[in-house]
Give the backbone structure.
Amino acid sequence: MSNNIESVLKEDRVFAPAEAFSSAAHVKSMEEYEELHRQSIEDPETWWASQADALHWQQRWEQTLDWSEAPFAKWFVGGKLNACENCLDRHVREGRGDQVAIHFVGEPGDTRDVTYNELLGRTCAFANALKDQGIKAGDRVLIYLPMIPEAAIAMLACARIGAVHSVIFGGFSANSIKDRLEDSKATAVITADGGWRRGSIVPLKANVDEALEGENTIEKVIVLERCSNEVTMTEGRDIWWHDATEHMTDECPAEAFDAEHPLFILYTSGSTGKPKGILHTTGGYLTGTGSTFKYIFDHQQDDVYWCTADVGWITGHSYIVYGPMVNGATQVMYEGAPNFPDWNRFWEIVETYKVSIFYTAPTAIRAFIKAGDEHVEKHDLSSLRLLGSVGEPINPEAWMWYYEKIGGSRCPIVDTWWQTETGAIMISPLPGATPLKPGTATRPFLGIDAAILDETGQECGPNEGGKLVVRQPWPSMLRTIYGDDQRYKDTYWNEYEGIYLAGDGARTDDDGFFWIVGRLDDVLNVSGHRLGTAEVESALVSHDAVAESAVVGKPHDIKGQAVVAFVTLKEGIDGTPDLNKELRNHVGAEIGAIAKPDEIRFTPALPKTRSGKIMRRLLKEIVATGKVSGDVTTLEDKKIVDALIASGENGNG
Ligand code: WT7
């Protein structure tokens, strides 16, 4: 289908939307986008109010935005609504109760379809169980579950009664649960006996038990039976999900909560060791996720949508639970790994359920490219009409493969830039309007005033690199870092007065399209997971043998970045292969397997400036190129460079 390819320069391929797609889309042309965007930036409150109107409010708001205490925004002041009612009851009331909400595919091959009716009934019953266990509005509840419908049910049940959920990714370890528990002072945990991953059982309940050793604020642990593996139940504290819901009715009033009532806390890595509890509230978050889902995925009532993210990440919150459900979407939810039992799994699911919108991450796409086209070619993927990408810049080769092999050169790709903090997609094509270029997230969404600024706060010209910012508040923005208003101000609002600093470097091209270059701080992106180098360093240093460590990212074909740790050992300890392995496992136990360094390089010392700052630039160059060509004049001990280079060559990594 080369008729919709308009070639410009050889590296500058442009793919205009096909006529048939545009004519049925919510936004049909670039002119329409330009006009809507211009208006929405001149008067964001009118635009966002029009989007909030798509929700069901039990009491309408009086003021769209109160920015008088910036950077602490209040959206839809005086408005009252229930997030769960907006995701479920509304669709049932409007006659869509029999529509499938979730086509669930378990890793072992078990499947079930859950309708909106059933989802509502089960969520209400579970909400009643939460109340029965003493959980009330404002309480923090940790959710540590596999990718199963009950994860959505648990989140929505919390929302229904105004409890604040904090989902912890199932790949995190007991220590990570403990950190999040200490920070959030949660009073309950919702977990499962286990979850399936590549044919084995992830011992979720056992991890929770380990995290709860010693003093803590947890009063109740609700345990779903998923794998029927053996678990220990602590009398008085632990209760099975099925026992807790047994006598509960499936009716539970959807109480009205303030638009600014906290909906959830989600922890994300920062450049210091302590994870940041990103706080999102109700009315603005639903407005942002609901409207972006509709326009960017161009959602239509007969679509079958599939987002392959985990509910433990913001993508799962915004584009599995809230965004799609506010829109009454039908979606696929898959529990396991993309390559279990083999690399056919995803495409088999697309074929079986006739998925029309597919949203995944570049790291997954690169893994599929490596696995070989034969797994894709065996399947009929003609139901697909739109593809999405999220998590990191998608390299043009991966983009082209995705476009041709998965999308049959027929489906637009929405490369969506956003963050845990932004709550919803901020920069992305509108698929019926925006001409696509491989590698760019293109233009800001309606109502989003994104720009690139230089050090002095001046807007950069085309092709000039700078810092990505958002100049006006938007409804789904984070409200603070939980319990740390100061860190919220320092991290996002200190660089430029009244302007949100995203922490990414970027440039625009001659068409005003945004190209994201990567993080400005020491945050890595490993297989789509954001990891603070400081978190991995503190895990390493917590091992008895380690004196000091510096962690950097190394470009990696599939994962995006690999974790490389330079480690100096305590006096008298040898850097043996056994210790190397032990340290990697230690990080796995402290944070989770995703954080395990791909390489550990023992070195007699780390490169430091005279003031004692580790020169990461130098380490990054060494891991990427094996040499140092940059300026080393500020380096305290120049001899160290040779030892560092050798650390990669002597095979101890
Ligand atoms: C960081 C946010 C947003 C959900 C998943 C990650 C990078 C994200 C893109 C994209 C280039 C991207 C940025 C951003 N990022 N999407 N389409 N193009 N970079 O959420 O863990 O909060 O990470 O991911 O660096 O700041 P997160």
About this structure: The chain is about 30% helix and 25% strand. The longest strand covers residues 546-556. The pocket of WT7 is lined by residues 268, 314-315, 390-393, 415-420, 441, 502-504, 516, 519, 525, 530 (CB under 6 Å). Residues 1-11 have pLDDT under 50 and may be disordered.
